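User: Run a structure prediction on this.
Assistant: Running it now.
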Amino acid sequence: MKRATRRKVRFELAGEPSSRASVAGTFNNWDPAGNPLTYKRDSGRFTANLSLAPGRYEYKFVVNDAWIPDPNCPDSAPNDLGSMNSVLTVPDTGSVH
């Protein structure tokens, strides 16, 4: 049986250099410290590249301890806390945005 190839996924969020930001979701058991984002001064954005297996993932950004959905993600799903999670689908082939 062939193992699914992991895909590089880039997470991006506009922010201020004095902020702390990370991404948490079903891919890291919702660990707010598991995947910190790096601030890029030239673009004014936080970024992180993760390697994910094909599948459907729910996630949120964590900015200064506040959980926020991805403002650039068109797909979302309700969560058990009464708010919305962003939804990312990583395909078997092709690119991921």
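Strands lie at 7-14, 21-25, 38-40, 45-52, 55-63, 66-68, 76-78, 84-90.
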